[in-house]
Amino acid sequence: MEKFKVKFLPDNKIVEVSKDTTLLSAALSCGVYINSACGGDGVCGKCKVIVKSGKVLTQPGGAITLEQRKQNFYLACQTTVHSDLEVEVPQGSKLDYAELSSPELQDRLKGFFNAPEEIEPVKAGMREDFFARSPLTTKLFLELPVPSLEDRVSDLERLYYQIRQVSDFGAIQTGLANIRGLSELLRDSEWKVTVTIGRRNDSLEIISIEPQDTSAKNFGLAFDIGTTTISGQLVDLNSSTILGTKAVYNKQAAFGSDVISRIIYAQEKGGLERLHNTVVEAINEMSRELIEEHGVHLNDVTCVLCTGNTTMSHLLLNIDPAYIRREPYVPTANFIPVIRASEAGININPRGLLSCVPGVSSYVGGDTTAGILFSGMYKEQDLSILIDIGTNGEIALGNKDFIVASAASAGPAFEGSGVASGMRASLGAIQKIKIGHGSRLDYQTIGGGKPRGICGSGYIDLLAELLRAGLIDRSGKLKAGVDKRIRASETGNEFVVAYKEETATGEDIVISDADIENLKRAKAAVYSAVSILARHMAADISKIKKIYIAGGFGTCLDIENAVHIGLLPDVSREKLEFLGNSALAGATLMLLSAQAFKCAEDIARRITYFELSVDPCYMDEYMAALFFPHTDLNRFPSIKK
Amino acid sequence: MEKFKVKFLPDNKIVEVSKDTTLLSAALSCGVYINSACGGDGVCGKCKVIVKSGKVLTQPGGAITLEQRKQNFYLACQTTVHSDLEVEVPQGSKLDYAELSSPELQDRLKGFFNAPEEIEPVKAGMREDFFARSPLTTKLFLELPVPSLEDRVSDLERLYYQIRQVSDFGAIQTGLANIRGLSELLRDSEWKVTVTIGRRNDSLEIISIEPQDTSAKNFGLAFDIGTTTISGQLVDLNSSTILGTKAVYNKQAAFGSDVISRIIYAQEKGGLERLHNTVVEAINEMSRELIEEHGVHLNDVTCVLCTGNTTMSHLLLNIDPAYIRREPYVPTANFIPVIRASEAGININPRGLLSCVPGVSSYVGGDTTAGILFSGMYKEQDLSILIDIGTNGEIALGNKDFIVASAASAGPAFEGSGVASGMRASLGAIQKIKIGHGSRLDYQTIGGGKPRGICGSGYIDLLAELLRAGLIDRSGKLKAGVDKRIRASETGNEFVVAYKEETATGEDIVISDADIENLKRAKAAVYSAVSILARHMAADISKIKKIYIAGGFGTCLDIENAVHIGLLPDVSREKLEFLGNSALAGATLMLLSAQAFKCAEDIARRITYFELSVDPCYMDEYMAALFFPHTDLNRFPSIKK
User: Fold this and answer.
1) What residues of B are in contact with residue A322 (Cβ under 8 Å)?
2) Strand order from edge to edge, sheet including A453-454
């Protein structure tokens, strides 16, 4: 097979690949992450690159304009290598991880997470003293009685005996690795050792035995693996305090922006492995940063608790998610046994444990379970709703007697994909917009610099403001001639949010009729999911006690505007409560308490999955939601007024 | 470091070693097994070799006569390499594994083991219907309901559900390896699979999942790892029948004939690893032969159950046995958790299990537990005694209320070591002797050919016959002049059993005063251990219901002669019952029944270890037993008569 060298600019990364390799996979194989929202199908047009020199073959397609073709623009996913190449990756085609410096990213994502005092299981108001502290792993310092001719109990049984003296642990297992070194260790440490005991489902295991007293240093990590964002926390398991939180974008996005395109990618040769490695590398990277920042040794991190939607959980464990998207949509496992973290490639203490939050079905995963646990709705008399808005969102409705959950795929529009000027919530994204009189428009960007595009919360503000200013009608059509920012385009009308003179890209930032249509569909998907679920359960939304809003999207979400465009139901505002990243918070709870984990298992078993599309009213409900805020204005009394 | 080539004759094996390496370790490193009863201390004189060419350095010592020195005889353990060498290993210095062909060995060791019908747990008279059949691993054939839109239970939970439909198994764990391939496997096999479920102490684990119905093929192996002999059985776990039995000599003998010298050897660099590998290789070799002979696939062997004394168990698992011989004599573990066989290097199904019979103390191991289980003495109203005679023997006394056990190291004399013409029970060994009138002596050799030496059972016959013929006195001294076979030697008198004309070695086969002294000490060790234990428990030996005799030694043991020389107590003969290899039989029982294993755990916990040497009467009792049959003839009424 002929091999060619491809050099990617401006990174100057060079990779040797076989003839006929796509530029996209060549880029990925040398760590150049190119945007590829559609997963390489040639339809999203996000992976444009410029071939500076060399010979390529490409598939014709509509995503490249004639003008761009003249400038040697190609779709990386549709173009194959036929000689040594020099390829430039324009800023707009790169996944924008590095564009937000770490403190800014941290700052931006801060609201994402509850402050330590909020998440602390015994302090959080509603959950006070609810869960016993019983972390996934526990360290015990033991001073063993020294054997004598009168006391010849074997070393291992002596250890067990002493464990039972200081704790209420029952039968405990020990792996051969720990037994092999035991005798020497006990004598070298003069019978003073620290054992780390982990919970492996219903049994207990000695994870490690260390000389002397190291019991003060026992740490765990909790992760929420989202389709778009991976967030993690380092937790002191002794004091039940959160030491630090981090979030990074899920680089799996390079293989498709939603779970479906990633499942498809996983079917390619080496695809599953690559998706798995990508998420594990991200976790290891975050862990390393977290422990370095807090002066923790890797060996003292003895457990990890992960949550995520079902596809993310499968990919984390290198389990083929193929059957999640094939009828009848059955995952390999919802309840995954506790394993050694090293089995999944996660670097902590070599014998440390990895536990995954149990999920419910192919499209309602452990993140929903964790969110419900954290919301506390599962133990209330009154009905509540949990709305987790994201590329792959979930809705749950229930109380102490029942819980029903549905998957509501809002699509990637609110994440900045599938909309002309859309971008992720990163440096240069317009995140807040206010339209004033006389075509005046104020916006605020992440990082405060020149705008590069609009992120989800910016679009919600923009839609609400366009409605309030009367610049779009209730179907979302821009009204030509009403404002000088509205102008005709090839496909209809568009509204200029920022003129090229003021942008970082030198191009106008606009919202078009087509963009509004996409956003309208996304909000309709969420709203109609809530409606159908409520109707299916014969629940009156106005009588619901609480509507919890969760997810990364919620951070900058202006709740009033979200109601205004019909994304959230129009209930009295004190009922709408922003939970932050409830999935991560729930995972941390489970890390700290076996009782919380058991509770989550019960929740996962109790949840009934409801497939929205099988409801005969679903289409009607969805169609009715394709207005701002809704066809039936009576459902939005505060807006009607 | 200078390297030299050493060639060993007659095997023509060549090895390159560093200067200063001993000839013994050079030989071992290329698979030439030289006898080394003392473990390389230069005292046993068993490792004599002839240096044919090259330069060596040696330590002076008494084991080589001046005559031998002239013929270039050296002790392999005391002689180091200082040039390329040619070394001849005389027949007498080699461990005699290969000298008995496999069928002969099998034949010789047959009596060792109970016939299948005797060992079968539900058939064996005393134990009828006592233990439920519940093997260490079970195969279940499952036809899973095919998932549909109405039945979307995940694959793993579907599997668990079906297991619960056809069995009474409770919570079951599954490793990641099995989960990873599960979805594809279920669909490829059209939802018909066989799961192998193993018992890992108190939890259950799915060991493997295979397509279609393979449940008819489920096999296990039981091993008794003795200091001298390793015996094993292949068992059909479905029908609870023994398919075949094998025994080989434990090649660890090359590193010392008893457990103490092996523990010492384990402290040398690489020593533990070498001892471990030696026993594991033997097990793998036996397994391979057994499964080949019975047309079984390695993958269908799903579990192994091993027993052995505490040192053997530690070496099997590559656990340093150092502390077994250091005061206060504490082993690393008596109860060893069930592990994967591959963790110990044993080749069966890659995920198959290894379980070890629980032991009691450093010198009372799982073999005693297994023997007591098999004897049934632990559940009788009346007291019984179990005597396991071997290099490292054990005595147990008890009933359903208590069991006391002691270690009685008979030493290697009965195994053919430490006696001039002694040899192991292998080809050419005199195993039966009858002395007639007029210096007539009839003997029978293993294999029927010319004699090479005398094995343990031969020595017992010989001593009894010498006593009966009045050729030795009760202290064991040969009576000079009474028989022409008795003649003077350098150290006293000796009795010629076979003249050089009739032997295979061309040398006389004799028993000397010194040999008799050694044998007398060995029998005194066993007898006095039984006496002390009985006295300690205030038990009248004549009132004991049964005395079970176990061990490899017992096979050819003439019980009448053993009583005659005072090895066994003089009780009515129907009380003396030969059990065969009760340790192996007990292990097989445990392989077939979790209930039997639980029972063995109870037995191991119940047994009180009694250290003979702390009894103030021990020395008196031992001294009194240094007569044939005993100082106190009243203890041997049938002999007195």
Assistant:
1) 183-184
2) A441-445, A429-435, A453-454
